[in-house]
Amino acid sequence: MPALFSDDWMVDFGNAWNDEPELGDALAKIGFASVIGYGIDGEDKPRGYIKVENGYVTGAGAYDGTALNWDLRASPADWEKWCAGGIGMMALGLAYTTGKLKFKVGDYSAMVKNPAMAGPFIKSFTVMGRVARA
Asked: Which domains does the chain have, with CATH numbers?
């Protein structure tokens, strides 16, 4: 099984994202396009990324220096916890305010205030849990 945020894991995550209507379809309605990095807090760069165009992942893999619109960081233990059980809106707010989930790039406040983005963002954690990992 691929390790969390490895090249293979990110490709599998991108495929799972595209298979989930509450992500792709929902974000297509608002024309969402971004490059999102995922990584470990304290590291210089994210480990993996996905490229989303019109709501759907069109590229994914190990981080290759691509410019990011979002860069999400947390500890390995927190990522594992969220992958295993998802995250709700209250838990997301708590994770952000306590520094467990960091946005090195991206505007958390703007995202969470927009229901068309917040719902899919929360759903993305559930989808992460569908991807096998080491």
From this structure: 7-128 (3.30.1050.10)
